[in-house]
């Protein structure tokens, strides 16, 4: 997950405030996320929803792999899982 600090002033600030004040979005963060999604769609960053899902899966798999390699995540064998949870 990326964290980004965004400072808005002028027209952008007014638009974000009005969108939240008028109930279109609950928070300013939601406004910004919706705007990013809209830009991605407008500029055709992905060809399809399937492409987006593939990218998310690849990133999740890479994160898990990195956690295993660094020792932050332990992988259990089938036998270890069966023993731990009492399966036969």
Explained architecture:
It is a single chain. The protein is mainly α. Helix content is 65%, strand content 0%. It has helices at 10-21, 28-42, 49-70, 78-85. The protein is elongated and about 60 Å long. The model has no long low-confidence stretch (mean pLDDT 94).
> Number of folding domains?
2
Tell me about the largest β-sheet. none
From the spread of the alpha carbons, the general shape counts as elongated
Helix content: 55-70%
SS elements, strand count? 0
* Percent of residues in beta strands: under 5%
Order of helices and strands: HHHH
* Average pLDDT rating: 94
Helical stretch count? 4
Please state the oligomeric state of the protein chains shown.
Answer: single chain
- Report the uncertain regions: none
Radius of gyration: 21 Å
How widely separated are the two ends? 39 Å
Structural class: mainly alpha
List the helices and strands and how they pair.
Blueprint: H1 10-21, H2 28-42, H3 49-70, H4 78-85
Any key phrases for this structure?
88 residues; mainly alpha; 2 domains
Describe this structure in a few short sentences.
This protein is mainly α and 88 residues long. It has four helices and no strands.
